[in-house]
Amino acid sequence: MIDIRAAGPMEQFEILPIIALDFAGVDISFTNSSLWMVIATSAIVLFFFLATRRAALIPGRVQSAVEVLYEFVSDLVRDTIGADGRKFFPYVFTLFIFILAANLFGLVPSIPGTPAEIHTFTPTSHLIVTLALAMVTISIVLIYGFWKNGLKFFKLFAPSGLPIYMYALIVPIEIISFLSRPISLAVRLFANMFAGHIILKLFAGFVVSLLSAGGAVMLFGIAPFLGAVAVTALEFLVAALQAYVFAVLTCIYLSDAAHAADH
Amino acid sequence: MRVEHEPEVPKPSGAGWGRAMRVSSDLLAGLFVGTLLGYLLDRWLETEPWFLLAGIGLGFAAGLRNIARSMKDDSGSSSEI
Amino acid sequence: MSIFTLITSAAETAAAHGDEAASAGLPQLDPSSWPSQLFWLTFTFGILYALMHTKFLPAIGGAIEERRDRIADDLDKASEFKREADDAENAYNQALADAKAKAQGIAAETRAEVDKDIAEMQAGTDAALEQQVAAAEARITGMKADAAAKVREAAAETARAIVETLIDEAPTSDAAAKAVSTVSNAS
Fold first, then answer.
1. Is pLDDT at B27 greater than 50 in this prediction?
2. Segment A8-13 mean pLDDT
3. pLDDT at C24 (0 to 100)
4. Quick check: helix, strand or coil at residue C41?
5. Are residues C140 and C118 in the same domain?
6. Which of A169, C25, C162, C177 measures 20 to 30 Å from C45, CA to CA?
7. Among candidate residues C127, C149, C178, the one where a domain is terminated
8. CB of A232 within 8 A of CB of A204?
9. Quick check: C158 contacting B, CB < 8 Å?
10. Which domain holds residue A48?
11. Nearest C-alpha of chain B: how many angstroms from A97?
């Protein structure tokens, strides 16, 4: 029974509680998802701690890597948002590095024979997580947009120079479009992670079942094995690119908030 | 307008997959938000099914608007998945 | 209030309808795991943001900034050193040119002096030699005249002796001298 379920490609997305926790009637158990969030975060913190422990004039390998990341995101924020963007840099950077780490750790193979609770899990393959991150972004956009532009923020939804009756159509469309962009962002990250892991699992499943068949059939395992290797390489690319795309689009939304009155 | 003289370079398969993913997520997100807003307004104002229908239409338009915006955002920068 | 509440309420209605359907299908659509995921996401992301914001990013930015300043500083210093080196080279070239000019001046002066000395010495020597030559010539002329007078005297003497022998009468020395000079002038 368990074996049949374990063979399915959906098993890797199941949330399994490790430590049951309850807060005011809400289930906030420490799960496998929580575990991999904590692992990803700890790895980032350790990495950055090592890199900044002794900020040297001539950087070592770790410090160089961290500085490349820093300059990369810093350039992105400056190019997209402009001078206003500096205050969003820590947020965009944290977002980028968090998603990157979560995506990449999800590609580490699980250790065979360990309980399913500690098998590799990708937190970003759950829509609620990517949606929450997108919601934080849109909340910042709304709060900062109104704080900076006041009611002129609504100009974002009403491009000037149209006949009056057009606004009845354009404004609702623009509002829906504005609200749907973070959802599109969240769905994209989630769908990439989700689909990639399903494909990986399917290839891996082929390999395992063909190998277990034994004999000459084992030779047929080579093709899916190569396929699994290729998909894994592609997934590494996708993991990095999706983190980048998430950061880029976050910057574009924030830029809208900063420059709404200019439209 | 850019004039392309070079022969078209075949793109890596990931880019096409990514573009399809983005276009569909843009369209579906617009449709989803429009439909959801229409559904909630209908429930609040007890006007079924008018806002739902309007929401579907406007949501589709907003999805197209999203796609147009993504294309515009994209034209400046490099291709993304 | 915002889209967030809208979605949560929509999700609750969806959950009420299809709880068993969700648990059988996609784990992503099982709302019972959402509070836990959101809580731990907030927890880890919040800690990471706080650390990045207060500690790591300022440290990295500071290191990059410091390096940039240091490099700019070093470049300034290097250009200053180069300018100093250029100055020194110019000064050296100047000194070299001066020394050359001076040496040439000294050489020319010395040569002129030596030339003058040589000319003086030559002039002195020439004058002495000329004087000696003139003295010698004067002596030679004197000796010539002397010898000619002596020859004439001897010729007159001889002529007188010959005449005395021939005619046994001795002419006066004046007449003999007169005759000899007439003969020698004629020949």
1. yes
2. 77
3. 52
4. helix
5. no
6. C25
7. C127
8. no
9. no
10. 2-262
11. 18
CB-nearest partner of A34 from C36, C49, C55: C36
Determine how many CB atoms are found less than 10 A away from the CB of residue C70. Answer: 11
Look at chain C and report how many structural domains it folds into: 2
User: Mean pLDDT across the stretch B43-71?
Assistant: 88
| pLDDT category of residue A263 using cuts at 50, 70 and 90 | low
Q: What residues of chain A lie within 8 A of the CB of C2, using their CB?
A: 139, 142
Residues C121, C127, C130, C134: is their CA dihedral positive or negative?
A: negative
**Chain A residue at shortest CA distance from B25:** A184
Residue C6 has pLDDT above 70, yes or no: no
- Given C79, C102, C127, the domain boundary residue is C127
Do C101 and C149 lie in one domain? The reply is no
C176, two tokens? 């003999």
Residue A65 has pLDDT above 50, yes or no: yes
| Cβ proximity of B65 and A173 under 8 Å | yes
- Token pair, residue C65, equals 């900034």
Whether C18 has a pLDDT exceeding 70, the answer reads: no
Cβ of A194 and C48 within 8 Å? no
Q: By the CB < 8 Å criterion, does C5 face chain A?
A: no
Q: B22, A237: Cβ pair inside 8 Å?
A: no
Tell me whether residues C7 and B37 touch, CB distance under 8 A. Answer: no
By Cβ distance, the residue of A172, A177, A238 closest to B14 is A238
- C77 plus C142 within the same structural domain: no
